[in-house]
Amino acid sequence: MESMSSPESEPGPADSPPADALPAVAPQLRALRRRASLTLEAAARSAGLSPAHLSRLETGQRQPSLPMLLALARVYGTTVSELLGETVTERDAVVRAAEMEPTAAGGWTYWQAGAAGRGMQALRVQVPYGSQGDIVRVHPGEEWLYVLRGRLRLRLGDTTHRLGPGDSAHFDSLTPHRIAAQDPDGTELLFVHTLLQSPTATLCLGPTPGETP
Predict the structure, then answer these.
(1) Is the pLDDT score of 43 beyond 60?
(2) Among 174, 119, 169, 114, which residue's Cα sits nearest to residue 147?
(3) DSSP assignments along 38-59, one per residue
């Protein structure tokens, strides 16, 4: 399990204002906040920052740490890459069924149902019975799932929910959660997550082939 510090933590090297580090961050932060139609105060509150600190980030007086970038990207509905001003190549809007190759990860099988590299990732997932049921996940972002077939056991914090076909759930991924098939036949679901292109993405689907669990 991976823990994240609060976005507004003790100042460190990443919070200092070096002259030439991340020159595109300040204007991008302001532009993306305005695109999201958020005031400085509202954006700062949602990201766990003070308005004064966010103002310093937007004017280049401070440089954000990784937890701050993750929090702000989530608030603005974008990716850390866009916050850093990185350009993204054009992607196809449509994903054809023939292009959805199955991939095994941590006992699950999933099919990419959306374009790769975006802040929001859509998947069709097959969860066998007894697979990953004891893995507790905690990571930045949000998750939404919709049960297509079978029954799902979803534990959020201290509460266990049992979902059947047509049921859905939408939750903050920083809430400790476990996903498991309820019945021996397994379950199939649609799954959307916003992991903000973070290395913690592997915590969501389990280790990929070749990785050590």
Answers:
(1) yes
(2) 169
(3) --HHHHHHHHT--HHHHHHHHT
Q: What is the pLDDT of residues 140-178, one digit of tens each?
A: 778 999 999 999 999 999 999 999 999 999 998 889 999
What phi, psi does 73 have (nearest 5°)?
A: -60, -40
Query: Within 13 A of 39's CA, how many CA atoms are on the CB side?
Result: 5
Q: Which two tokens stand for residue 109?
A: 């099988």
Query: CB within 8 A of 159, min separation 6: which ones?
Result: none
For residues 33 and 1, the answer to whether their CB atoms sit within 8 Å is no
27 band by pLDDT with thresholds 50, 70 and 90: confident
- Listed residue (15, 126, 29) closest to 61, CA to CA: 15
What six digits make up the tokens of 176? 């400790």
Q: How many whole angstroms separate alpha carbon 21 and alpha carbon 16?
A: 10
CA dist list (Å): 73 to 33, 36, 142: 10, 11, 12
Distance CA 149, CA 182 (A): 11
Backbone angles phi, psi at 144, to 5 degrees: -135, 135
What are the angstrom distances between the C-alpha of 55 and each of 5, 81, 86, 140? 21, 20, 22, 23
Tell whether the model's pLDDT for residue 191 goes beyond 60.
Answer: yes
The whole-angstrom separation of Cα 27 and Cα 10 is: 24
